[in-house]
C-alpha cells in the first residue's frame, strides 16, 4: 500500500517557505497572539525582498523597516539552502551597526517555533564571532569592517551573497577589498548595499551604489511610504530635525542625499604611529571631594619622551563633557600624551583641575581654552584671579571663542585682515594632519574616528558649516575632543606660528609729547 508522504498542507507550507516574501510574513505571524495584528510587508519591502538582481541598492530613510527586510532575506536564504554548502555574509562598519540585525536573527532562531528546529540544541549561534550555523549545512558570517578601513576583515573571503549595511559609513578601503570576494561565477550571486544617506559624496559606498554605479537596481524609500508612519511621527520629526529643509530631515525622513557634504579629515592622509595615549574619564556625580579628582589625575604618568615644549587644549562643558588634551612637541611634530574627559563637573572645580594639571606637568608652554559661553568665567579667573597670578597664565593661555574673528595681519592699506576663527582652526588641523605635524596614535583610534565624522557643507551665501556626525548618521555627534584639539592649535598658532611668520615692520613715524 502506497502511503502519502506529504499532505496537501505540507505542500502548501513548502511553497510558502520557498517564496521570499510569503516566507517572512508566515514566520512573523506563526507564533503571534490571536489578538495581534497580522504582519504584512509594505509594498516597497516586498520589492526589496523579491529583487534578485545581481547588484541591489537600498537608499532609504530611517524607520522604514529596512532592518526587518534584510533580516528576512538572510533567514530565507539560510533555511532554503539557496547556496547549499556555502556561507553568506552580512557586513557593517561597526558593531553598533551590527546589533539590530544580529539581535533580530538571534531572537528569530531561538524563539520561533519553526526556525528553532534548524539549530542544534544549545549550539549554532556564536555571539562572540557573530556567526550562525544551521543543521542544513548553511551558515551566516557577520563581518565588522572596523574604523581602520584596511579591509583586513574581508580579505580572503569568498561568498555568493553579501549584504553591506549602513553603507553611508562603510570604509571605502574595505569596500575596495570587498570587490573580489563576491563569487560572480555562481548562479544567483547577489550583493545588496543598503543604508541611510549622510550627504557625503566622495568615496561614499552608499552614494556610489545609488548614484554612480549603473549596475545596481535602485530602491529609494522615504518614511512617508511607511504605512505605519503617522502624522504624529511627522510632527515629531519636523521639530526634532529642525524643519523639512534641514539636512537631517532630508536624510532621515526623505531618504535623499541632500546638499553635498564633505569629510574634513582623511585617515589615509594622517600619520599614525604606535605610542601610548592615556585616557581618563571622570564623572562629577560619582565623586564628592576635589581631592578624589586629584587622586585620579595624579595617576597620569609623566611624559617620558624628550620634548621641545608641552601644550594643553581644553573644551569646557558641564552636561556636555569637558575635554582636555595633554600634548607635547618634538622635532616639529606634535604628539598626544593624555586625553581627559570630565562629565558634570562644576566649573569652579574644573578651574582648579586645569590648574592642577598645569602644575603636574610643570607648566604648559601653550594653553588653549574654550572661552565661549559658560567657559568665559573660568578663563577670566585663570587669567586675572589673585590666586593664579603667580602662574603667568596671561603669557601662556589663549582664550578661544570660535564665534569670533581672528586677525591674521595687516594689509597694504593698514587694515586688519580678519577671518572667522572656527573655519580657520579647522584649516589648521587639516594642514597639521596632512603635513604630518600632528602624529596620531594607533592606541587611540577612537579620537581618529571622531575626527573622521567631522563634515562640512556650504550655505548658499558661501559660509562653511561644520558638524560632527553620530555613528548612525545624526548631526549631533560628540566633538568635544575635536574642539579641544582646535583650541590648542589656535593657541599654538597665536603664540608660536604667528610670531615666527609675522613679517618685521618698521615704524615710519611717531609722535611724542614734550615740553617747549
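^ Assign residues to that structure.
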Amino acid at each position: 500500500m502506497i502511503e502519502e508522504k506529504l499532505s496537501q498542507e505540507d505542500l502548501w507550507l513548502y511553497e510558502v517557505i520557498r517564496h521570499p516574501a510569503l516566507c517572512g510574513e508566515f514566520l512573523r505571524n506563526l507564533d503571534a497572539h490571536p489578538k495581534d495584528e497580522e504582519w504584512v510587508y509594505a509594498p516597497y519591502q516586498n520589492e526589496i525582498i523579491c529583487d534578485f538582481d545581481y547588484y541591489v541598492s537600498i537608499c532609504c530613510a530611517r524607520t522604514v523597516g529596512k532592518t526587518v527586510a534584510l533580516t528576512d532575506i538572510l533567514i530565507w536564504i539560510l533555511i532554503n539552502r539557496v547556496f547549499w554548502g556555502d556561507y553568506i555574509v552580512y557586513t557593517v562598519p561597526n558593531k553598533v551597526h551590527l546589533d539590530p540585525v544580529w539581535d533580530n536573527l538571534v531572537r528569530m532562531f531561538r524563539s520561533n517555533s519553526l526556525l528553532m528546529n534548524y539549530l542544534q540544541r544549545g549550539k549554532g549561534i556564536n555571539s562572540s564571532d557573530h556567526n550562525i550555523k544551521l543543521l542544513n549545512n548553511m551558515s551566516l558570517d557577520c563581518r565588522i569592517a572596523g574604523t581602520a578601513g584596511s579591509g583586513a576583515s574581508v580579505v580572503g573571503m569568498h561568498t555568493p551573497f553579501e549584504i553591506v549595511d549602513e553603507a553611508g559609513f562603510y570604509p571605502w578601503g574595505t569596500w575596495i577589498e570587498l570587490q573580489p570576494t563576491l563569487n560572480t561565477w555562481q548562479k544567483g550571486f547577489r550583493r545588496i548595499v543598503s543604508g541611510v544617506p549622510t550627504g557625503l559624496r566622495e568615496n561614499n559606498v552608499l552614494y556610489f551604489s545609488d548614484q554612480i554605479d549603473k549596475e545596481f537596481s535602485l530602491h529609494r524609500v522615504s518614511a512617508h511610504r511607511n504605512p505605519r508612519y503617522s502624522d504624529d511621527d511627522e510632527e515629531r520629526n519636523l521639530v526634532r530635525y529642525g524643519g523639512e529643509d534641514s539636512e537631517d530631515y532630508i536624510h532621515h525622513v526623505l531618504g535623499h542625499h541632500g546638499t553635498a557634504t564633505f569629510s574634513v579629515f582623511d585617515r589615509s592622509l594622517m600619520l599614525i604611529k604606535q605610542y601610548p595615549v592615556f585616557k581618563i574619564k571622570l564623572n562629577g556625580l560619582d565623586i564628592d571631594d576635589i581631592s578624589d579628582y586629584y587622586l585620579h589625575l595624579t595617576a597620569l604618568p609623566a611624559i617620558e619622551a624628550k620634548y621641545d615644549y608641552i601644550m594643553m587644549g581644553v573644551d569646557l562643558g558641564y552636561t556636555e563633557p569637558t575635554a582636555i588634551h595633554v600634548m607635547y612637541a618634538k622635532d616639529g611634530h606634535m604628539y598626544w600624551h593624555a586625553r581627559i574627559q570630565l562629565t558634570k563637573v562644576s566649573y569652579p572645580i574644573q578651574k582648579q583641575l586645569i590648574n592642577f594639571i598645569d602644575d603636574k606637568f610643570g607648566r604648559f608652554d601653550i594653553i588653549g581654552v574654550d572661552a565661549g559661553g559658560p567657559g568665559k568665567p573660568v578663563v577670566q579667573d585663570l587669567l586675572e584671579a589673585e590666586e593664579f597670578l603667580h602662574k603667568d597664565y596671561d603669557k601662556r593661555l589663549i582664550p578661544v571663542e570660535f564665534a569670533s574673528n581672528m586677525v591674521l595681519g595687516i594689509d597694504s592699506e593698514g587694515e586688519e585682515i580678519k577671518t572667522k576663527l572656527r573655519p580657520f582652526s579647522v584649516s589648521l588641523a587639516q594642514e597639521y594632519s596632512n603635513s604630518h605635524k600632528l602624529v596620531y596614535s594607533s592606541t587611540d583610534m577612537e579620537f581618529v574616528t571622531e575626527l573622521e565624522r567631522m563634515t562640512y557643507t556650504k550655505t548658499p551665501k558661501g559660509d562653511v558649516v561644520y558638524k560632527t556626525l553620530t555613528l548612525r548618521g545624526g548631526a549631533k555627534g560628540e566633538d568635544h575632543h575635536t574642539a579641544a584639539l582646535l583650541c590648542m592649535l589656535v593657541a599654538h598658532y597665536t603664540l608660536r606660528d604667528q610670531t615666527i611668520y609675522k613679517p618685521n615692520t618698521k615704524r615710519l613715524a611717531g609722535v611724542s609729547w614734550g615740553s617747549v
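Residues 267-501 form a domain with the Nucleotidyltransferase; domain 5 fold (CATH 3.30.420.240).
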